[in-house]
Structure formats: C-alpha cells, structure tokens
Amino acid sequence: MQERPITDWLPLTKKEVEKRGWDELDVILISGDAYVDHPAFGTAVIGRIMESEGLKVGIVAQPNWQDDLRDFRKLGKPKYFFGVTAGCMDSMVNHYTANKRLRSNDSYTPGGEAGFRPDYATTVYSNILKEIYPDVPVLIGGIEASLRRVTHYDYWADKLFPSILVDSKADMLVYGMGEQPLREIIRGVKSGKQLSELTDINQVAFIQKQSDALPAVGDWETVELASHEVCLEDKIKYASNFKIVEVESNKWQANRITQAVGADLLVINPPFKTMEEVEMDKSFDLPYTRLPHPKYKKRGPIPAYEMIKFSVNMHRGCFGGCSFCTISAHQGKFIASRSEKSIMKEVDEITKHPEFKGYISDLGGPSANMYRMKGKDESICAKCVSPSCIHPVICNNLDTNHTPLTEIYRKVDAHPGIKKAFVGSGVRYDLLVDDFNKNNQDGNHDEYMEQLITRHVSGRLKVAPEHTSDATLRVMRKPSFKYFHAFKKKYDEISAKFGLKQPLIPYFISSHPGCEEEDMANLAAETKDLGFQLEQVQDFTPTPMTVAEVIYYSGVHPYTLQPIKTAKTREEKQNQNKYFFWYKAEYKDWIRNRLTYLKRPDLAQRLLGFRNNKTSWKK
Predict the structure, then answer these.
(1) Which tens digit of pLDDT belongs to each residue from 588-617?
(2) How far is CA 24 from the centre of its chain?
(3) What is the DSSP letter of 419?
(4) What does the record's cofactor remark say about binding (predicted)?
C-alpha cells in the first residue's frame, strides 16, 4: 500500500507545519482525543471547516498537562485564537463509571490507553493557554463545553458548577454542532474583529459585566435565568432554569438567555436553525483522509475509530428527547439529513479504504431510523416548544415515512463494492409500531422492517426500551413497554417468515429517576418471561444538560416541579443493578432475601422459583 503524504493530514508538529511552507498558524486546536481525520471526530470536522475557509490550522492532540507544558508551546502562537475541546465525550463521563470508579481504558486514545487527558479537560487546557498566552483569545466547544454552558450539576464533584466559561476563563463558547457559528466566527476574525467583538453570532455564549448593556441584535428577545448564586441556595430555581434552557435550545426562533454569575453576566445567543441538506453535505464532503494520523501507528489502534471506520452517519439530531440523553441537547431535536448523493459518495470512499473487506458496519445516525423525518407543515414546527416530537404521543405533524431510508439501504446493497451493509445504530422501535405511531403512510414501516431484518442485521438487532415500568418510562420520556411487546411480535414474525435467527438485544437502565427497587425486580421478571438474559445494561449516570440530571440533583421534575424519587446512594444503585443479573448464581440468594424483605415473594418465585429451606430474611 502506498503511503499518503503527511501533508494530507492537518499538521500535528512544527515539522509538519514547515512542510506545508507555513511560518505561522491562524488557529491551533487543542483536543483531548487523538487526531483521527474522519467526519465522526469533532476536531477533524472543525479543522477541515477552518481549512475550507482559508485558514492555516494545526492540532495539538492529547497534550501533556503535567510536565513543563511544552506541548502547548510546540506550534507557537496562533494569529487568531486557540480552539479547545475535551474531545468527543465529556471528560468525566470518559473517565468514570456510574459508581465513580476510574475507567481502565479510553476509546479515543491509541491502544485504548487511559490517562491521556485530564479531568475537566476543557477547563484545564484553557487555563494553561491563558497562563502561557494571556493575550491570545480562547474559543471552547465540543460536548463538554456545550453541555456545561450554564449552571450545572456535576455528579463527580457532587455540586453545582457555574458556566464552564467562568472556570475555563475562555473568551467564547460555541455550543451544539459548531459548523454554522464557526464559519461566522472565522469570517469575523478575518475581517479584523476580535473574538470578544463577535457578540451577535447565533449559537455562541460569552461573559460580560452585568453593568454593560446587552448587545443589540435584530429582534432578539432575552430570557433571564435565576442567577448562579440563587441556584446554589435553591434547588427548585435550578430546576426551573433547566426548563427554560431546554425549551429555548429546541426552538427555531429562540430567545437569548442570560444568567448572572457574581458581578458578571453569562449571555447565550439563540441557536441557528438546523442545517439544511446542502450544509450537511458540505461538512461531510470535506477532504478527510478517513484515517488516524500516521504518528499513532506504533501505539496501537484507536478503539473509537476501529468501531466507526466502515460506518456512514446519514443524519444528525434526535426528536426523542429522552430524559437521560444528551443527543438532542447537543445536536438538536430537528433532524439534519445528508443527500443520497453525499451518502453514496462516502460509501464509494469507504470501498477504497486499504483494509475494507466489503462490509459496512453501520448505516445510521444517533437513532438509526430518523433519516429525513421532519414536520409535514414546518410552520407548525417553527412555533413548537415541545422537547420531544414523540412523547407522550407521536406528533401528527411528524412525517415518519421510512421510504427514503429503505431506498438508501437498497442502493448501498446494490453497490458493486459492498457485500453487506449493517445497521449498527439503535433502531427507534416505537416509530415502527402502528399502535403507537399512527403516521404510517402506505404501510412503509413494514417494508422498512422487512428490508432491515432480512438484509441489514449483523446477527442481532439493538433496540432500547430502557425499562418496563410505565411510571419510570414516563419520566424517561419513553413509550410504554407494551409497544416493545408489539415490536418484538412483528420482528419475530418477519424473522420466522424468512427463516432467520437474529435475536433482539434490548438496552435497559437501572437507578433512573422514578425507578424504585421493585420496578427493577419487575423488569427482571418481565424480561425473563420474554426469554432475555440481559447483557446491554447500564446504571444511570446524571450527565449535565439532561432532565434526569436535574431530577437527580433537585429531587423534582423541571417541568412540573413535583417530587420524583431517585436512587442516590451507592448501595441503592447497586441493589437496583443486581436484578439485571438474576440468572447469575452469586446473586440468587441476595435477590431471594431482598424480595422477601420487600414483601414480594411473588417476584422471587417468578425469577428464581421457591426454596423450601428456612432463610433469615434480613435487609
């Protein structure tokens, strides 16, 4: 295989900068992830966008923050600003389990090795840059910055933090998917403006003095949140803040948000409208090598890259609005889809990859089957303030036609370089259940399901009912478990029709707000009755900018301000989690004793059967 020239990647070293004939960089990106030049990795996307706008861009990937800080100096001082991101994950989620145990690996590091980024990476990197280069502006972005843009509860420190702009000392924050605000920022700095002057751009946040007048921008109206100091004293005010932030984040014509922090004022400008197809294509069609930087060859594969290198992301956003999920908080609830031409072009690119053997691992997105779904009458969407298009019921204005997606599956199938294309993303099964989704035009959901099941399942199909308790599911913003039963029935019928044995793999969460221990025992019994021994399970982790995080911290639902019980101690969380594994010998006695203590011997019988010998029923 012929090696590509190093100049095909954005430069990581001074030598690579010089090979391009550059004396100075316009922007230097600091990232908590290794540099993979692929559209699934945010640093690559941001770097390539800047490059497309004519900027000279360099990357410092996973700098050492514990030595003499030479990594932060190695590319020199940029002409315009430093861009800082923790990477594709919040650094605390990346580092710690739900039990706050340190993880032993990092999927965004060569060899999966842990320890190559700090806790609260955005803040650490930004503070270092401010110390070394006090006169150079710092722009922060990515998941960590985006979801920590206002006062937020941090599960790992067990306290409220102010906007990340305060602790990081950064000059500006880009939230959400950054292509649109970034292009505006680049045009602004190229015209001679400072970052601090670009206060009229959508989808950015910054800090100003409370005594200063707010920038006058068109017809923007402003909504004021309870101050950070009030939130520290009043959990209900904190919960009320969240509702405002979530509603404004999901509107087409949103208001500007402000929040007092000490003598300062946090200002969050309204988001851009969701990207159109042309804009999406422009982002995905940039000249990515689709490969990790060659410097990592001797350090081993990067697990996150290995997982997605032969996958195609067809859309962004999610209109589910699940209480525990950050996708809509970061990517938005409105779906931004690529054109069929752009998708097929990427399929062509994948077939040229030196290691490609003919199998695409995923044709998907945040949810596999939301491609091209939007409002039938978008003027209704323009006024909508609901955080979900499908909870508590599916909006009758939502076009859930699966035909465009089915057609793409067929075209990829017909590609001469493709042996098989799988759907690895989770399928939103409730969209495919007619009892729940009344918007099934011409039965196209059944056609989609048949195409999916017969052609695109790699042994097993992932779906996420998340729970069996209707009360818990309402808090999660998920549909009743009865619809999973209906989906499974249809799935089994199609599988039997074609003689296929491809098990469903359901995902579940324990300890979610609104879930009590008996609910978990019921979950175990109900899934056992369906023939499942659960594997894909997780304990709830409160992550910033989610409804569930607000409930966990405040004890109330941010929309109703009514109390909701939540498992909070390690013992309570572990107790709930154990029910997933009723089939393991080491848990059987504990479950039997525990259910007897809870006065639910009926559940013990369903899970384990009766035992005649006497046992001490202690908590």
Answers:
(1) 999 999 999 999 999 999 999 855 444 433
(2) 34
(3) S
(4) Binds 1 [4Fe-4S] cluster. The cluster is coordinated with 3 cysteines and an exchangeable S-adenosyl-L-methionine.
Per DSSP, the three-state class of 257 is: strand
Residues 84 and 27: their CA atoms lie apart, in Å, by: 10
Cβ atoms of residues 333 and 319 within 8 Å: yes
Residues β-bridged to residue 374: 399
Check whether 389 is labelled as a binding-site residue. Answer: no
In tens, the pLDDT along 449-458 reads 999 999 999 9
pLDDT of 2: 62
Distance between CA atoms of 527 and 534, rounded to whole angstroms? 8
Do 273 and 251 touch, CB atoms closer than 8 A?
no
Tell me the two tokens of residue 172: 């500006």
Q: How far apart are CA 119 and CA 86, in angstroms?
A: 9
- Taking CA atoms, 498 is separated from 106, 409, 427, 502, 504, in Å, by 40, 18, 20, 11, 16
Q: What's the CA gap between 162 and 261, in Å, rounded?
A: 7
pLDDT on residue 611: 53
Answer yes or no: are the C-beta atoms of 500 and 453 closer than 8 Å.
yes
Residue 359, CA distances (Å) to 313, 363, 369, 500, 575 in order: 15, 11, 20, 19, 41
- Count the residues in the chain: 619
- H helices present in 111-234, as ranges: 121-132, 142-147, 164-168, 179-190, 228-233
Q: How does pLDDT run across 494-546, given as a tens digit for each residue? A: 999 999 999 999 999 999 999 999 999 999 999 999 999 998 899 999 999 99
Q: What is residue 3's predicted lDDT score, i.e. its pLDDT?
A: 83
pLDDT digit string, tens, across residues 230-278: 999 999 999 999 999 999 999 988 999 999 999 999 999 999 999 999 9
384 labelled binding-site residue: no
Cα–Cα dist 286/57, whole Å = 15
pTM, to two decimals? 0.95
pLDDT at 87: 97
Helix (H, G, I), strand (E, B) or coil at 563: strand
Was 318 annotated as part of a binding site? Answer: yes
What's the whole-number mean pLDDT along residues 209-224?
95
pLDDT at 280: 97
Mean pLDDT of 198-209: 98
449 contacts 409 by C-beta, under 8 angstroms: no
Residue 376 neighbours by CB under 8 Å, 6+ apart: 397, 398, 399
H or E element in which residue 570 lies: helix 570-578
Answer whether the bond into residue 181 is a cis peptide, omega within 30°: no
Give the dihedral sign, CA 186/188/194/199.
Answer: negative
Contact 459, 498 (CB under 8 A): no
Amino acid (1-letter code) at residue 273: K
User: Looking up tokens 């690119």, which residue turns up?
Assistant: 349
Order of strands across the sheet that contains 222-224: 57-61, 27-31, 81-85, 138-140, 172-174, 204-209, 264-268, 256-261, 222-224
Residue 187 vs residue 536, higher pLDDT: 187
| CA angle, residues 29, 65, 330, in degrees to nearest 5 | 45
Q: Residue 60: what residue type? A: V
CA–CA separation, 265 vs 243, rounded Å? 20
Sign of CA dihedral 189, 192, 196, 201: negative
> What value does the mean pLDDT take over residues 470-498?
97
Q: State how far the Cα of 595 lies from the Cα of 619, in Å rounded to an integer.
A: 10
Location of structure tokens 């060569």: 110
Query: What residues have CB less than 8 Å from 414, skipping those under 6 apart?
Result: none
